[in-house]
């Protein structure tokens, strides 16, 4: 049965994260262990009531075949995890997370479920998180960024988390968005430390194009949002301070922050804000400098620091991962240079994982 009760369909939607809730049925419309399909803004949703009273909603579209049959699947359990088996090919999916327990290449989009005091049930789509980094040809940098995205997946197992790249590496962001299941909206989280051209132009235009894509004309409309950059954030200053300590920062050392640089003044302002946060964190003045596009350049800032104060000069690398820019920062003439925020072979800082998750959540609930 597909739920199309006009009294239910006419009920107002509920404003909640990540999009408006859509009322679909009442608890009495559901039979334990039997799925029901509901049509929500052009998307089919399969709802399941378990004998213990728990409610789950997933896409009714079978990930392997595209057929809308999941509501006719077999409800079960594996290791305490509630599951649904496709009636077509018997692949088994976790009802809570959408993970396929029989084929790691498949995933069933989940929906959020809300039940009010009158036992009226509403659903809202979950969003996919597209983690968009700049991209690098440096193998260590690639591994470090991939480890961050993997850590976000581990922290948020209920989400689809996909890697994408603005430049250098593949797949690019449009390709990744195109591969996200039709039932899911998308939030692009830039794995960029400052919000410059890539955030305000490249990714914003990509999001607009994905929404307006002619190929989606016959499908349900998809919302694609772009979150803010990772910085500035006090937690990044904490990681920078930790990297400086690892580099042997002394009490009398002068600190120069080395940022990538941008022609966008908003990105430059973000870097200066980070410099101020780091100065507060380590209790000394921090000179902000840039590797490209903005002034002062790192070698000039290091030279000026040597002239203005005795003692060592230490560069704080305000870079996400190892790569060409990290090499340039290390060659700027300082006595010591800290590692980037991410390092190859080490677990990503918990602060960065939390920031990525929070940027996603803040945009998805806006």
Task: Give a quick precis of the structure.
The protein has 366 residues and is of the alpha/beta class.
What pattern of helices and strands is seen along the backbone? EHEEEEEEEEEEHEHEHEHEHEHEHEH
Quickly give the structural class: alpha/beta
- Sheet having the most strands: 7 strands, mixed
- End-to-end C-alpha gap: 34 Å
Helix content: 25-40%
Q: Give the CATH topology of the largest domain.
A: Rieske Iron-sulfur Protein
Tally of individual domains? 3
Oligomerization category of the chains in this entry: single chain
CATH class category label of the largest domain: Mainly Beta
* Silhouette: elongated
Average pLDDT over all residues: 90
Strand portion, in percent?
15-25%
**CA gyration radius, whole angstroms:** 24 Å
> Which sequence of strands runs across the widest sheet?
1-3-4-5-9-10-2
Would you count the extended β strands for me?
Answer: 18
Q: What ranges have pLDDT less than 50 throughout 5 or more consecutive residues?
A: 1-18
CATH architecture of the largest domain: 3-layer Sandwich
- Number of helical regions: 9
Pfam family, one: CbiX
Domain Rieske: 22-122
GO molecular function, one term: metal ion binding
Protein name: Rieske domain-containing protein
């Amino acid at each position: 049965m597909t739920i199309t009760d006009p009294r239910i369909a006419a009920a107002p939607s509920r404003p909640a994260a990540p999009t408006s809730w859509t009322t679909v049925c009442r608890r009495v419309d559901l039979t334990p262990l039997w799925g029901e399909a509901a049509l929500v803004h052009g998307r089919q949703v399969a709802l399941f009531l378990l004998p213990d009273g728990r409610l789950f909603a997933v896409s009714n579209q079978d990930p392997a075949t595209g057929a809308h049959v999941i509501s006719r699947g077999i409800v079960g359990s594996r290791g305490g995890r509630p599951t649904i088996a496709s009636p077509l090919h018997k692949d088994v999916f976790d009802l809570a997370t959408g993970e396929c327990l029989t084929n790691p290449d498949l995933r069933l989009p989940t929906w959020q479920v809300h039940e009010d005091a009158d036992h009226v049930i509403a659903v809202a789509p979950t969003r996919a998180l597209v983690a968009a980094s700049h991209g690098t040809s440096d193998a260590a940098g690639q591994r470090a960024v991939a480890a961050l995205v993997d850590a976000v997946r581990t922290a948020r197992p209920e989400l689809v988390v996909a890697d994408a790249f603005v430049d250098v590496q593949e797949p690019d962001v449009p390709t990744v968005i195109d591969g996200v299941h039709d039932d899911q909206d998308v939030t692009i989280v830039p794995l960029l430390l400052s919000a410059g051209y890539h955030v305000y132009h490249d990714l914003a235009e990509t999001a607009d194009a994905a929404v307006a894509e002619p190929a989606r004309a016959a499908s349900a409309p998809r919302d694609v949002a772009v979150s803010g950059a990772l910085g500035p954030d006090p937690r990044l200053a904490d990681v920078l301070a930790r990297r400086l300590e690892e580099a042997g920062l002394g009490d009398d050392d002068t600190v120069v922050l080395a940022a990538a640089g941008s022609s966008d003044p908003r990105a430059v302002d973000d870097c200066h804000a980070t410099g101020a946060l780091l100065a507060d964190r380590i209790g000394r003045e921090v000179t902000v400098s840039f590797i490209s596009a903005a002034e002062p350049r790192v070698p000039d800032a290091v030279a000026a620091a040597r002239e203005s104060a005795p003692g060592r000069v230490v560069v704080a690398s305000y870079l996400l991962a190892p790569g060409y820019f990290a090499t340039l920062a290390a060659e700027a003439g300082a006595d010591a240079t800290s590692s980037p925020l991410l390092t190859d072979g080490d677990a990503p800082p918990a602060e960065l994982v939390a920031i990525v998750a929070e940027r996603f959540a803040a945009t998805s609930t806006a």
